[in-house]
């Protein structure tokens, strides 16, 4: 039961860190209260056995004093808890966000995430899916929207939840404080494959982040080997292109993850499988058995088409 | 010891108790036989049916829980697929909340409240029967739909738009939405019953400050039902079902509707709902503690007032279920503060019971074991509730197993354990047989250990990022061991359940019959034989103390002069319970059943076409005409 | 059991047709239930109202004021019929009961007819947009309750005309009036919200 890559106990983001401190500010006094209450109850059982049935010695007035005191103490403790909670809430609220934030728009889809790095200059907008890269030290503003039902954006190691709601925009922000890969998962029940709607957030040094951005900004790599060229043809001539976009080609479907730089990603199918050739092959030939009910159609492919297609997808760095 | 209400003068009347009992038996006995079963209107018969039916649904919900736990025991398990799993957790939550927890509390109240108040039946016996039939039919309706494949799968609060027409196909969600109407009508019927019974039918002399604490809990709970339940009907029927069946746009953002409003309306009901389940349980605790510490519960006014306060505050907290939707800052601070302040009203009650236990002489019956189990489990659940009320903490734990742990701690610790305690406590009264104490304690320990084994690890799972409502999870996240422990715990709970059932059945068959007051408890239901006769009290007692059976074990002041040849009860004043006039309750009748059946037909059809409501209204109206039609002279003559 | 003291209640009246009767309390609580339902609907109405700029939505003809305002007259008068019936019930005056109930039912029918005529002028349904959905829900639920109460009144008329009424049925007349007062009263805020609301309340 140790913290894994999706634990809120191992915080590496500004919001998650202060919340982690708050957790202990709550847990410790509450645990003490719990122990006291249970101890009093247990002693009350055995006390009477010892006194072998002598009538109670406490006066009602004494009891009244105790109960009143405990109630007043409860109020005081609660006021303290409210105060620390509200002040933490202020610290992570939108109003406390520093200025130079990087805005990332996350759209929830049944059951994957599309991600856009917003920019006033339209040519600098990066689109990707199921994986978010952030530079350490810079505030990140998550702008949440939804394409269908309500989802919830949550990366426990970095930041708490924010629902993605159709017809609304929700926001939250954090600063990654430590490099690493953090797993996030959709937290609001969104239907059949809610369990397989995860994502990875990669927090890296500003330099590496900039390099990644530059790579993502470009169009897809042109196929080089004959197999890759064959694979591209397969992709474009099959239904794939109706749903997926690969920038730099004619594929510009809008209802599925952008595959322009697929090979640079850690996982496929919203965190369901590690991104490697074998898994990709399994996914493309039979997505429904890997993630039953997901919205990718099984596209019948000739046996000789699969390997070129995998070569091509593998080249999309 | 003269009672102010009792006219001192006049010779003691002479009467023949045996003869009176025979006459009352003729008047109050419900018809026999299979068909007669559908006629019953005595509160004891109806109450027992409620309790039994609700326990059957507990079994169903429990089996569903076990299926979920088997699926989650190991990562990447293939025992249940995503569709089945989603259906099963929806059915589990729905069954437990709507078909078990609320009805079982209503049922206990229907049985106990009239006896505790010293009257012969609830104020509206036919409405009472009608409520029960609506409940049963609602349960059958949901499960019959499920059996034909229309199982809801959108969770127990069916958030839109997922549950809306665009994303949930089939009739499952419709069945869910309409089931709520059934159970809600039932709960409202009982709430009206209980409130009027408590206000108007108390035994003479039982002024407000002498009402047993359990009855206070039920009175407050009834008002919460009255104010909360209509909201869920708006959410489930007006908003969700009409959007699905006749194309309204309440939750459709494209036409100005709003999915978040659905959440507001649902939780405006949903939060009070959890206290609707919880308050009756607090009443059980007071009654059991009182009987088993040989002293009045400490702080009667404090307990009553804090429950009243809970009732009020509960309507101002609903937004704490929606923190993750994003709120204006000022709202955040308010809802955090309000949610935490309810810990004060609950804390006061805990302290009062602790004071009672501390200064009383504790007798550790099986029922008392459950009281201590309650203290342990509920307090822990309440404290995690306080954590959830903090917005930053909630943003990390919302929709994770931390919340699952919280609400099972409060629901099972705060409602189920007191209920099981109450079951052991009143079993002798209801069945006339003593309950096996040893097996009772064994089942307590199994349930207690099993419960903590199941649900404690869930706190850690939640903090480690395990979201709820997922049918499977990868091995790499470190959730496997916690889940395995939880599943083992659930099996121990089930074992405890088996012992519980075995004990109940064995005790029913045993020959140890129960005396009227085996625990030497102070309230009026213990003054009549076990099980009580259909008419409850042959002579209604006159009350002059908060603990009438301790003040005067033989209850030597009684009411005479009521007619035995019709179902007469006495109406007393709201505050002082001074006798005002007599009134006649209707006799047993088939009409409540028929009316419920007619309305059920309409509701069932309504998930297919709106016009079935008219059919239901017509049939229901026919039933009501029969129900209210004047009967031969005995009932209507002055 | 050997009771030492008794409280003899045989002299107490076996019935009371007043606001002290349990049935009256039950009816009151039923009205509270309906009332909280209607409160939720009104809250919803304003929630939807303030979240858009144009209300009712473009293309929806604003609701006329004349017919619903005229319809208030028979509705309010009908409560007088209920009052007369109640007085009749208390005094066991069969003719007054009959007259009151009949006046009540006739005036209520006039109200309903006016309402149905008005509905035919609407150019939207519950499925047009959110305004239609909420307005029709309010109108439908209120109308449904009114018709249910009229049915009850009709049955009571039948019973009283037939002379089969005992104290219980007289009490029935009394509580029937309680429900009717409630339905009249609750209509007033609805009337203001549904017909005046769009004119008086702006967007957020
Ligand atoms: C019996 C039912 C019951 C009860 C009694 C409670 C009691 C409380 N609940 Fe719980 N709750 C549920 C049933 C219940 N809850 C359910 C079913 C859900 C989930 C629904 C779903 O999503 O499916 C839920 C969810 C829930 C949430 C939303 C979580 C989320 O989804 O993100 C929150 C947040 O504030 C919350 C808070 C509280 C609080 C503050 C109390 C308080 O009333 C607790 C008060 C009690 C104590 C605090 C202990 C005793 C007090 C003392 C010993 C005094 C000393 C204490 C202090 C000084 C702190 N509950
Ligand atoms: C009063 C309410 C109540 C009760 C008593 C329980 C009881 C139990 N609940 Fe549950 N639960 C809810 C209310 C309740 N629950 C709600 C509201 C939800 C949310 C649903 C949603 O998300 O929509 C939920 C969700 C929920 C989940 C989360 C599902 C998910 O999010 O994916 C889990 C997972 O472990 C769970 C487990 C259990 C278990 C193991 C029990 C056990 O305690 C049950 C034990 C009982 C029995 C087993 C029956 C008694 C046994 C016998 C009589 C023995 C005979 C039977 C056999 C041998 C089979 N419950
Ligand atoms: Cu998306 Cu859950
Ligand atoms: Cu709540």
Structural overview:
The complex is a heterotrimer of chains A (317), B (638) and C (204). With 317 residues, chain A is an alpha+beta fold. Chain A has helices spanning 14-50, 60-92, 206-217, 226-237, 240-243, 277-285, 287-290, 303-314; strands at residues 102-109, 112-117, 126-129, 131-135, 139-146, 151-155, 159-164, 170-175, 180-185, 198-204, 267-268, 273-274. In chain A, strand 1 (102-109) and strand 2 form a beta hairpin. Chain B is built from 19 helices and three strands. A two-stranded antiparallel sheet of chain B has the order 2-3. Chain C is mostly helical and 204 residues long. Chain C has helices at 22-50, 66-91, 94-119, 130-162, 167-200, and one strand spanning 5-8. In chain C, helix 2 (66-91) runs antiparallel to helix 5 (167-200) and helix 3 (94-119) runs antiparallel to helix 4. The longest helix of chain C has 34 residues, at 167-200. Chains in contact: A-B, B-C. At the B-C interface, helix 6, helix 7, helix 8, strand 1 and strand 2 of B face strand 1, helix 1, helix 4 and helix 5 of C. The complex binds heme-A (HEA) (2 copies), dinuclear copper ion (CUA) and copper (II) ion (CU). Dinuclear copper ion (CUA) binds at residues 108, 111, 151, 186, 188-190, 194, 197 of chain A.
Summed up, what is this model?
The complex is a heterotrimer of chains A (317), B (638) and C (204). Chain B has 19 helices and three strands. With 638 residues, chain B is mainly alpha-helical.
State the helicity of chain A in percent bands. 25-40%
Using only C-alpha atoms, the radius of gyration of chain A works out to 27 Å
Oligomer: heterotrimer
SSE topology string of chain A:
HHEEEEEEEEEEHHHEEHHH
Most extensive interface, chain pair and sizes: A-B, 89 and 86 residues
Instruction: Find the count of extended strands of chain A (DSSP E, 2+ residues).
Output: 12
Shape of chain C: elongated
Taking pLDDT < 50 over at least 5 consecutive residues as the criterion, the unreliable ranges of chain A are none
Largest β-sheet summary of chain A: 5 strands, mixed
Kindly report the average pLDDT value of chain C: 89
- Structural class from helices and strands of chain C? mainly alpha
Q: What is the strand arrangement across the widest sheet of chain A?
A: 3-2-1-5-8
Radius of gyration of chain C: 21 Å
**Ions, cofactors, ligands: which are bound?**
heme-A, dinuclear copper ion, copper (II) ion
Counted beta strands of chain C:
1
Helix count of chain A equals: 8
């Amino acid at each position: 039961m140790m913290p894994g890559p999706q634990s809120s106990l191992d915080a590496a983001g500004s919001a998650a860190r202060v919340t982690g401190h708050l957790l202990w500010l709550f847990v410790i006094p509450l645990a003490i209260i719990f122990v006291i209450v249970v101890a009093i109850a247990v002693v009350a059982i055995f006390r009477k056995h010892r006194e072998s049935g002598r009538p109670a010695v406490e006066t009602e007035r004494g009891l009244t004093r105790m109960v009143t005191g405990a109630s007043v103490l409860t109020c005081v403790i609660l006021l303290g808890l409210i105060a620390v909670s509200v002040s933490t809430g202020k610290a992570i609220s939108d109003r406390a966000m520093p200025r130079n934030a990087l805005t990332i728009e996350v759209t929830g889809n049944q059951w994957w995430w599309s991600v856009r790095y917003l920019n006033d200059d339209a040519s600098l907008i990066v689109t990707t899916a199921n994986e978010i890269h952030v530079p350490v030290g810079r505030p990140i503003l998550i702008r949440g929207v939804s394409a269908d039902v309500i989802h919830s954006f949550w990366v426990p190691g970095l930041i708490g939840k924010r629902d993605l709601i159709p017809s609304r925009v929700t926001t939250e922000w954090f600063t990654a404080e430590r490099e690493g890969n953090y797993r996030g998962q959709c937290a609001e029940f969104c239907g059949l494959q809610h369990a397989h709607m995860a994502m990875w957030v990669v927090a890296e040094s500003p330099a590496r982040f900039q390099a990644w951005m530059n790579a993502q900004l470009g169009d897809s790599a042109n196929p080089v080997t004959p197999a890759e060229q064959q694979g591209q043809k397969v992709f474009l001539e099959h239904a794939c292109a109706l749903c997926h976009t690969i920038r730099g080609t004619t594929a510009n479907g809008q209802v599925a993850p952008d595959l322009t730089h697929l090979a640079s990603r850690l996982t496929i199918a919203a965190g369901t499988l590690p991104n490697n050739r074998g898994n990709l092959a399994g996914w493309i030939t039979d997505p429904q058995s890997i993630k039953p009910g997901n919205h990718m159609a099984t596209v019948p492919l000739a046996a000789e088409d699969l390997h070129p297609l995998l070569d091509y997808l593998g080249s999309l760095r | 010891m003269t009672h102010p209400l009792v006219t001192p003068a006049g010779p003691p009347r002479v009467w023949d108790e045996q003869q009176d009992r025979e006459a009352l038996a003729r008047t109050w006995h419900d018809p026999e036989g299979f068909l007669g079963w559908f006629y019953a209107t005595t509160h004891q018969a109806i109450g027992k049916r409620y309790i039994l039916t609700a326990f059957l649904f507990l079994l169903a919900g429990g089996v569903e829980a076990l299926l979920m736990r088997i699926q989650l025991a190991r990562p990447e398990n293939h025992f249940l697929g995503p569709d089945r799993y989603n259906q099963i957790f929806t059915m589990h939550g729905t069954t437990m909340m709507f078909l078990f927890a609320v009805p079982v509390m209503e049922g206990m109240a229907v049985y106990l409240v009239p006896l505790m108040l010293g009257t012969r039946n609830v104020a509206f016996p036919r409405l009472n029967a009608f409520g029960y039939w609506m409940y049963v039919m609602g349960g059958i309706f949901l499960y019959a739909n499920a059996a034909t494949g229309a199982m809801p799968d959108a969770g127990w609060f069916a958030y839109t738009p997922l549950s809306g027409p665009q994303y949930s196909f089939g009739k499952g969600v419709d069945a869910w939405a309409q089931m709520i109407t059934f159970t809600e009508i039932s709960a409202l019927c009982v709430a009206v019953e209980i409130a009027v019974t408590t206000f108007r039918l108390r035994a003479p002399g039982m002024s407000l400050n002498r009402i047993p604490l359990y009855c206070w809990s039920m009175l407050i709970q009834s008002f919460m039902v009255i104010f909360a339940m209509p909201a869920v009907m708006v959410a489930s029927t007006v908003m969700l079902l009409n959007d699905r069946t006749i194309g309204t746009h309440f939750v459709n953002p494209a036409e100005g509707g709003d999915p978040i409003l659905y959440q507001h309306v649902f939780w405006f009901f949903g939060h009070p709902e959890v206290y609707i389940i919880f308050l009756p349980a607090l009443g059980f605790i007071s009654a059991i503690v009182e009987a088993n510490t040989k002293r009045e519960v400490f702080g009667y006014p404090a307990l009553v007032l804090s429950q009243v306060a809970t009732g009020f505050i509960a309507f101002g907290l609903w937004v704490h279920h929606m923190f993750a939707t994003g709120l204006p800052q000022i709202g955040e601070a308010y809802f955090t503060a309000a949610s935490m302040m309810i810990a004060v009203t609950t804390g006061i009650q805990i302290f009062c019971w602790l004071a009672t236990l501390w200064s009383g002489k504790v007798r550790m019956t099986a029922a008392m074991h459950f009281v201590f189990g309650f203290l342990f489990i509920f307090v822990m659940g309440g404290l995690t509730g306080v954590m959830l009320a903090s917005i930053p903490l909630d943003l990390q734990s919302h929709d994770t197993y931390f919340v699952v742990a919280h609400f099972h701690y409060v629901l099972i610790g705060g409602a189920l354990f007191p209920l099981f305690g109450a079951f052991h406590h009143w079993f002798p009264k209801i069945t006339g047989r003593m309950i096996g104490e040893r097996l009772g304690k064994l089942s307590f320990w199994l349930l207690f250990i099993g419960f903590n084994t199941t649900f404690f690890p869930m706190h850690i799972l939640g903090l480690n990022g395990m979201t709820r409502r997922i049918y499977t999870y990868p091995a790499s996240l470190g959730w496997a061991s916690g889940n395995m422990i939880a599943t083992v715990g659930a099996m121990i709970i089930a074992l405890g359940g088996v012992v519980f059932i075995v004990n109940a059945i064995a005790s029913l068959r045993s020959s140890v019959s129960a005396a009227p007051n085996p625990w030497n408890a102070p309230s009026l239901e213990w003054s009549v034989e076990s099980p009580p006769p259909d008419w409850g009290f042959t002579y209604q007692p006159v009350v002059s103390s908060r603990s009438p059976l301790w003040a005067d074990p033989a209850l030597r002041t009684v009411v005479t002069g009521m007619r035995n040849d019709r179902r007469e009860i006495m109406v007393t004043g709201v505050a002082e319970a001074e006798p005002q006039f007599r009134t006649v309750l209707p006799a047993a009748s088939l009409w409540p059943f028929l009316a419920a059946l007619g309305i059920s037909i309409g509701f069932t059809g309504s998930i297919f076409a709106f016009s079935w409501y008219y059919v239901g209204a017509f049939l229901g109206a026919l039933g009501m005409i029969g129900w209210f039609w004047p009967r031969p002279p005995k009932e209507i003559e002055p | 059991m050997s009771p030492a003291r008794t409280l003899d209640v045989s002299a107490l009246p076996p019935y009371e047709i007043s606001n002290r009767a349990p049935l009256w309390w039950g009816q009151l609580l039923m009205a509270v239930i309906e009332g909280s339902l209607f409160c939720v609907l009104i809250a919803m109405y304003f929630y939807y109202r303030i979240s858009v700029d144009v209300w009712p939505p473009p293309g929806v003809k604003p609701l006329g004021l004349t017919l619903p305002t005229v319809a208030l007259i028979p509705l309010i008068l009908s409560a007088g019929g209920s009052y007369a019936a109640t007085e009749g019930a208390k005094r066991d005056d069969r003719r007054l009961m009959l007259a009151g109930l009949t006046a009540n039912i006739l005036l209520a029918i006039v109200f309903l007819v006016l309402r149905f005529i008005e509905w035919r002028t609407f150019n939207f349904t519950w499925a047009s947009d959110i305004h239609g959905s909420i307005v029709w829900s309010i109108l439908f639920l209120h109308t449904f309750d009114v018709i249910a109460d009229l049915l009850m009144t009709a049955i009571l008329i039948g019973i009283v005309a037939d002379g089969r009424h005992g104290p219980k049925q007289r009490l029935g007349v009394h509580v029937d009036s309680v429900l009717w007062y409630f339905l009249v009263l609750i209509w007033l805020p609805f009337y203001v919200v549904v017909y005046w609301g769009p004119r008086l309340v702006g967007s957020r």
